[in-house]
Amino acid sequence: MYQMSGNCLVGQSGGPTAAINASLSGVIKQALNSSLIKEVYGTINGIEGVINKNIIDLAKTFISDNDLELLKHTPAAYLGSCRFKLPTVDLNDNKIYTQIFDTFKEYGIRYFFYIGGNDSMDTVMKLNHYAQKISYPIHIIGIPKTIDNDLQVTDHTPGYGSAAKFIATSVLEIAKDSEVYNVDSVVIIEIMGRNAGWLTAASALAKSNYSDSPDLIYLPEVPFSIDKFIKDIKEVQKRKKNVVVCVSEGLKDASGKYICESVSSGLIDVFGHKALGGTGKVLEETVRNKRKCKVRSVELNVLQRCAAHIASLTDINEAYEIGKQAVICAEAGNTGKMMIFKRQPDKEYGVSIEAVDINLIANKEKLVPREWINEEGNYVTDELIRYMKPLIMGEPKLTMKDGLPVYLTRPNI
Amino acid sequence: MYQMSGNCLVGQSGGPTAAINASLSGVIKQALNSSLIKEVYGTINGIEGVINKNIIDLAKTFISDNDLELLKHTPAAYLGSCRFKLPTVDLNDNKIYTQIFDTFKEYGIRYFFYIGGNDSMDTVMKLNHYAQKISYPIHIIGIPKTIDNDLQVTDHTPGYGSAAKFIATSVLEIAKDSEVYNVDSVVIIEIMGRNAGWLTAASALAKSNYSDSPDLIYLPEVPFSIDKFIKDIKEVQKRKKNVVVCVSEGLKDASGKYICESVSSGLIDVFGHKALGGTGKVLEETVRNKRKCKVRSVELNVLQRCAAHIASLTDINEAYEIGKQAVICAEAGNTGKMMIFKRQPDKEYGVSIEAVDINLIANKEKLVPREWINEEGNYVTDELIRYMKPLIMGEPKLTMKDGLPVYLTRPNI
Q1: Three-state secondary-structure class, residue A404
Q2: What is the pLDDT of residues A310-363, one digit of tens each?
Q3: For B50-54, what is the mean pLDDT?
Q4: Residue A188 C-alpha, separation from nearest chain B C-alpha, in angstroms
Q5: What are the residue boundaries of the structural domains of chain B, listed by start?
Q6: Residues near A352 by beta carbon (within 8 Å), at least 6 away in sequence
């Protein structure tokens, strides 16, 4: 494609993270400095805002570097988000596409940046496909974002490092908390990730020469057996009073059934309890009945994706940079691509940022490779730990007021 | 009493906090510098360690100021904790007391410091009582510690400020997370506190000129009505899409029954669900059935008492100082007292540290005054907010390694 001048539009989509606004900040910063891009617009609630013409002028909001710095550290999606799947491109039945491209025309959009996960990249792919079909001149670039770290091709995704840092810190602190009483105990920490175990794996970072927990880690990539799980705990209890176990919310048994659903399957209610709720609660009841010791389950819940107060500086800086690079990539004439991180092969950690064909990413999922999980399926390997470690390095300097971090307020639409 | 020289023993008891080790650090620092105190011992798992002679030499562990600084910021109880109630003093049946005072004699203990909550102060009171009965020369001083902030006489308790800061920060971040989608939603955040609402009240600190959540706050001091609760939510939904509600785990109905127990009382299962678990989960199910919108409940769980990475510097410094002052108070000849904070009446926040008779504290509970809760019983007053605000100020400078805070490892006993 060719270079062209015009206005730009940026949106956010999918689940919030602590770093998604850093990418938005990067896009705005670079777009405001661009010689090709004139106006810098934001769409409210992702592609829904494009359909409904819910568009704001970001140049009016972000006039100072201080605003952009605050935005960089604000968790969740400043522009709002959506979960919206575009229909397959069909020129005979294209009402939604017509609405979207009407908005593009009305606002003179020649650059569209969409920050999101693999579902959002489906949107990027389809919009690009449609633009080519109707020969509409526009550069459409996807910017990765997901705490799940499950996007293909890229070494890792913005948002993952901060979530991993919150998880590792919390596991470390919960482990300290669990060991104060002189009684046998098991703590089960439930971590997000329905299919991919990257987040649960991050709990391993809590283990160091000053903490020997967690003791067991179960990822959804390996079929989960309750009998084996109880046997594993029994084994750890031979050498340790206080056991810390980290489990993915998405654990499934050999038949592919979620453990958190097994309560209704009769697998758990033999113990006399019916439990609603998550994997952690189900396993808590199981351990209580089988091991007769003190048991607690802790669900880290949404803080995993919004605890910006313990974000990874590496993650925030990379998310900001990949936002800037997306603009540069579009200015150079690219479209239908997603930006990725490529890890430098040197000993010292570093990444380069490149662009790849969106078709390699959209609707695909990257799971933890089986060889990065130990043979028993109850811990991760050193290689996986080495992969994760640099991603949680560094702490952002937050602006504090009255003892709390200052975060930007969402525009009132 | 009179001044005397001898050895000192320090222990920790009750639930962990982010600040209890700061008080331990203060005791050790002051005791090591004391001209009256010779050896500085620690008891493992509180009074249980005194009974079982599980005693360590702290002077050997904490030889550098750096160690004491790390200890200051390490969450949970470094010496381990216990929940152990001493029997009423009875000289005709005093086996446990004999064991305890045998240990005191064997180790030459003339100073005993016990860091804990109102149950632990019962221990201080009884030991002091027994010492007087048998005319055993010892100075016994209680050092307050509880995230619940429910001790009498003292303006507030060490540990509360850090828990309040974690709660306020998390509520702020969860509120940001809750508002990204363009759908009606209710988030219910369950906060610790079975009887006292101080912790749940701290959620109000999240409200500022850059965040308008939480919308509703329910403390256990006011009888809870599910009908009123649903009406309150309906009212907020008239002006707001995303509602954030903070509830204490200890909410009770007018008859004094815990809401989390109401599932088995038939109050909830009319909605077709039986729920195990906490107040938040019960209310989540209720709102889902009554309001037909997206609902989520989040239990902040044990991170409230161990999230040292977001501790309040004010809290940590005060906890350290009250530990030091306890030693000075004992050296001056006092016994059977607990150290307290007295807030200075000036505009600028500050506290003085004093000692009061332990009988004023032990086994008593300080609830949130009714006049610090609004008339409707669904929010807190500005006066309560002014009371809490200074307690969460400031952030400790943590030692970080590999992206995580460095915390001390508990002695391996």
Answers
A1: strand
A2: 999 999 999 999 999 999 999 999 999 999 999 998 779 999 999 999 999 988
A3: 97
A4: 12
A5: 6-159+307-364+393-405, 161-304
A6: A341, A342, A344
Q: Calculate how close chain B gets to A404, using CA atoms only, in Å.
A: 6
The reply to whether residue A303 touches residue B298, judged by beta carbons under 8 angstroms, is yes
Q: Which residues of B touch A401 (CB under 8 A)?
A: 208
- The pLDDT, as a whole number, for residue A79 is 97
In this prediction, residue A266 carries a pLDDT of: 42
Judged by DSSP in three states, A226 sits in helix
Mind listing the pLDDT tens digit for each residue in B97-127? Answer: 999 999 999 999 999 999 999 899 999 999 9
Which one of the listed residues B57, B65, B67, B148 is annotated catalytic? B148
> Does B392 sit within 8 Å of A404, measured CB to CB?
yes
| Per-residue tokens: A395 | 């702490």
From A212, A223, A208, A154, select the one nearest A385 (Cα to Cα). A208
- Kindly determine whether residue A208 and residue B402, on different chains, have CB atoms separated by under 8 Å: yes
| Whether residue A262 has pLDDT greater than 80 | no
For residue B369, is the peptide bond before it cis, meaning its omega torsion is within 30 degrees of 0? no
Domain A163-305 has CATH 3.40.50.460: yes
Q: Closest to B172 (Cβ–Cβ): which among A169, A210, A407?
A: A407
* Residue A148 falls in the annotated catalytic set: yes
Which ipTM score applies to this complex? 0.95
* pTM for the structure as a whole: 0.96
- Cβ–Cβ of B205/A402 closer than 8 Å? yes
Rounded to the nearest angstrom, the minimum Cα separation between B55 and chain A is 14
Which architecture characterizes domain B161-304 according to CATH? Answer: 3-Layer(aba) Sandwich (3.40)
Whether B6-159+307-364+393-405 shares its CATH topology with B161-304 is answered yes
Output the CATH code of domain B6-159+307-364+393-405. 3.40.50.450
Q: Do B179 and A80 touch (CB under 8 A)?
A: yes
**Which of A165, A281, A402 lies closest to B403 in CB terms?**
A165
pLDDT band at B210 (very low <50, low <70, confident <90, very high): confident
A45 contacts in chain B (CB < 8 Å): 181-182
